[in-house]
Amino acid sequence: MQLSIFDLPPDPLPTRLRYPDPRKAQKLRELAASLQSQIDKKMNPAISHQRPTRRRAGIVASMREDGKQLQRIQSWLRVMADEAETGTLPDILQRITTKTQLEVLYSFCYHRWRDEDIHRILTQQFSF
Fold first, then answer.
1. pTM for the complete prediction?
2. Pair 11, 46: CB distance under 8 Å
3. Which residues lie within the region annotated Disordered (predicted)?
4. Which partner from 4, 66, 114, 127 sits 20 to 30 angstroms from 23, CA to CA?
5. DSSP state of 14
6. CA 82, CA 29: separation in Å to the nearest integer?
7. Structural contact between residues 87 and 19, judged by C-beta atoms closer than 8 angstroms
8. What pLDDT, on a 0 to 100 scale, did the predictor assign at position 102?
């Protein structure tokens, strides 16, 4: 028995037009790769090789948490690059181009933000 395209189950969602963006994908991959040296320094800081004290242990733990955050951001950048390459990057993520933007997104995802905190940050006047 030979199958035809008419035998395939219909896709419940309409097909979206895809617009691959290889330049954006390359830029995101380069940004992810550039984070590796920072991650290595945070995950294995020089202070961890010194005589251990309570203060130094706290510093090392904090630096390793920062390293884990950078690893997560790096993985997000790699996934975004794959999605940009195939043209399936969601519209809401199209304009993210820097690590700082992803750090803000990370803070919204992994820290407890109350409505008043978000309002305060978004309405804050910046003085330069």
1. 0.72
2. no
3. 41-62
4. 66
5. P
6. 9
7. yes
8. 87
CB neighbourhood size of 9 (10 A): 5
Q: DSSP label at 109?
A: H
User: Which residue do the tokens 């992803």 mark?
Assistant: 102
Give the CA radius of gyration of the chain. 21
CA quadruple 97, 100, 105, 106: dihedral positive or negative?
positive
Instruction: Say if residues 67 and 42 touch (Cβ distance below 8 Å).
Output: yes
Cα 27 versus chain centre, distance: 14
Which amino acid, one-letter code, is at 87? G
CA dist 124 and 119 (Å) reads 8
Specify the amino acid at residue 16: R
Supply the pLDDT for residue 22. Answer: 92
